[in-house]
Amino acid sequence: QSQIINLIMEFASQNADINVSLSALGLLWNLASIAKTPEMWKLIFSKTAPLIADARNDVSICAVNTFFSLIISNAELLTEDVFQYLASDLFASIVDSLVEERESSEATQQLAFHELAHCGRTLWSKFKEVEMFPDLFWRKMISEHEKFIYRCKKREIVLSSFLFYEELFMNHELSPQIITFTFDSLDRIVDFLLSHESANSPVFGSFGRLIRNGMPEQKSMMTVDFLKRWIKISERLIFELDRDGFLPPTAHKSLDAFLLL
Question: To 10 degrees, what angle do helices 224-239 and 249-259 make?
Answer without folding.
Answer: 160
